[in-house]
Design goal:
The protein is mostly helical. The chain has helices at about 5, 10-50, 60-65, 70-160, 165-255, 260-270, 340-375, 390-415, 425-430, 440-445; strands at about 310, 315, 485-490, 510-515, 520-525, 530-535, 540-545. The chain contains ten helices and seven strands. A hairpin with a 3-residue loop joins β5 (about 520-525) and β6 (about 530-535).
Length: about 550
């Protein structure tokens, strides 16, 4: 089956059909392109949905995610975010493997089709020209034959007329011979052109047109194969992400299976347990006896004067029973308006926060001390006396925080029913200052209440200061950039105010180019063009074992 032999006379229809094939291919490209846009839009909506229901930081919602059901929901949101990513992969792969590829192929196909049909039209024009030449030769031969017949008849007529002179007869005979010769010449020319036309026509219908149509047929078949391959790719792109989507769904199922209702119930107990004992039986009050009416300690309806004040560990409570309204005033500093168990948690959290602050200030004090030692050893880097004021301020802050921690530890000890005892961490942090005179824990516990039952104490405002850095010489400005020997993460924010130092923000990751040489300073770099020194205690260093110049610590 060949278009060149079967469709030799369907040039125009083939031209329309091949154009229709290109239109179908462009329609399929448009379909895939719209599918990729839908996938991107769907992925964006899924990501926005996942982000919308993520817990807000430092909010009550974040506290709720300690329950296993909420953790499972958070895992579901994260898995949906990954699920959206797979739809983005589908869009990207369809764009690169189908849309872009087919668009380029369509342009090549149009050029090839244009070239083939141009050759076809050229062959048509050539055969039409040959046909016109044949028709022109045929008409000239016909005309010359008629002219020769008329000239012959005129000669015969003149020859038969006795009244015509011999000269006229001779002239008519010569004219007839001329016309006869012209007819013979036209006949020979017509025969030659006809033979040539037949040869051209045979080559046109048996060689040129079949070759051109064969190329068009091969072009069209390649188009059909190409669109079929694209459809397979379309399905394969979807198939490739099915395993990953399956893992996302498996993750959601696993998160759902991790839900523990007993654990959540226990968390509710820990969150809301008051620590109160249930109320006891109410004693019977006999008003028929002429005796002094007594009021039960457990009576809910007792008068204000006769009701004894209940105490828990020597501390009056603003809430006696679970169904009595709690005081909605300002929360006291010692959290005395909370139930015992909740108060213990609040105090423990406060103690932990203060210990972290003490540790941070201690690290800052150590860094300033090391900086001062560097100044003492290298006076050209800075004046040691310039750090005394800052060191004093940091030391005072540590003492204030330590006293504050002692105060809350005393309240915590009171709630837990034990003597005030400082944690090992607090003892370690304040070991350098044990010889100094401080307010005792006993006074702190006894004098914390004002007449209305709330704690009052004048607190001095703490000024926030940044650690001073040494004024380094520009000794490394003209050196070649040092290679990085590792990375570091800033534990605290440091303001590099002096020359040679660099500012860092807590949590920032930078490159280490020179480790601490015993002077308490580490040299770091940011973005290949900004480097300087920071206190070693302000960063956590991760050295690359393979880096040149890195030391191995045991």
């Amino acid at each position: 089956m060949s278009w060149g032999t079967e469709l030799w006379d369907q040039f125009d229809n083939l031209e329309k059909h091949t154009q229709w094939g290109i239109d179908i291919l462009e329609k399929y490209i448009k379909f895939v392109k719209e599918r990729t846009e839908i996938e991107l839009s769907y992925a964006k909506q899924l990501r926005n949905l996942s982000k919308k229901y993520q817990p807000k930081k430092n909010s009550k919602e974040e506290e709720e995610y300690k329950y296993t059901a909420c953790k499972a929901f958070l895992s579901t949101l994260n898995e949906m975010n990954d699920y959206a990513g797979q739809h983005e992969v589908i869009s990207e792969n369809m764009t690169s493997q189908i849309t872009v590829d087919l668009t380029r192929y369509v342009q090549e196909l149009k050029q090839e089709r244009k070239s083939n049909f141009h050759d076809g039209r050229k062959a048509q024009q050539h055969i039409e020209t040959c046909w016109k030449q044949l028709e022109s030769s045929k008409r000239r031969f016909e005309r010359d034959c008629k002219e020769a017949d008329r000239a012959q008849q005129y000669f015969e007529k003149m020859d038969a007329d006795i009244n015509v002179t011999k000269a006229d007869v001779e002239k008519a005979r010569q004219q007839a011979q001329i016309r006869q010769q012209m007819a013979e010449d036209s006949k020979a020319d017509y025969s030659l052109i006809l033979q040539r036309f037949n040869q051209e026509q045979w080559e046109y219908y048996h060689t040129h047109i079949p070759n051109i149509f064969q190329k068009i047929q091969e072009m069209e078949e390649r188009r059909i194969v190409r669109i079929g391959e694209s459809m397979k790719t379309y399905a394969e792109v979807d198939r490739q992400v099915i395993p990953i989507i399956g893992k996302c769904l498996d993750g959601i199922v696993k998160a759902a299976e991790s839900i523990d209702q007993k654990n959540d119930s226990q968390l509710v107990v820990e969150a809301y347990k008051s620590g109160f004992e249930p109320p006891g039986d109410i004693e019977f009050e006999d008003y028929t006896q002429p005796m002094k009416r007594t009021v039960s300690d457990n009576s809910l309806s007792s008068s204000k004067e006769g009701k004894p004040e209940l105490r828990f560990g020597g501390k009056s409570k603003g809430k006696l029973w679970p169904f009595i309204k709690k005081n909605k005033g300002v929360t006291p500093e010692d959290f005395s308006n909370f139930p015992p168990e909740q108060r213990r948690k609040k105090l423990q959290q406060k103690v932990d926060d203060l210990n972290r602050e003490i540790q941070k200030e201690t690290d800052q004090r150590d860094a300033i001390t090391k900086m001062k030692d560097v100044y003492l050893k290298n006076p050209q880097m800075g004046d040691p006396a310039s750090l005394d004021q800052k060191l004093t301020e940091v030391t005072q802050n540590i003492e204030k925080l330590r006293l504050e921690a002692q105060k809350f530890e005393a309240w915590l000890a009171e709630v837990e029913g034990r003597l005030p005892a400082r944690s090992e961490q607090a003892r370690r942090q304040s070991g350098l200052y044990d010889g100094q005179t401080h307010q005792t824990v006993t006074n702190c516990a006894q004098d914390r209440e004002s007449p209305d039952g709330s704690y009052t104490e004048e607190q001095s405002q703490e000024s926030e200061h940044k650690a001073l850095a040494p004024d380094f010489d520009d000794e490394f400005d003209d050196e070649e950039p040092l290679p990085a020997i590792g990375t570091c993460k800033a534990l605290y924010t440091f303001e590099g105010q002096n020359e040679g130092t660099i500012s860092v923000v807590e949590g920032e990751t930078l490159s280490v180019i020179e480790e601490d040489k015993g002077d308490g300073w580490t040299r770091i770099r940011r973005n290949e063009d900004e480097e300087g020194y920071v206190p070693t205690s302000y960063v956590e260093v991760y050295l690359d074992k393979n880096a040149k110049g890195a030391k191995t610590y045991i």
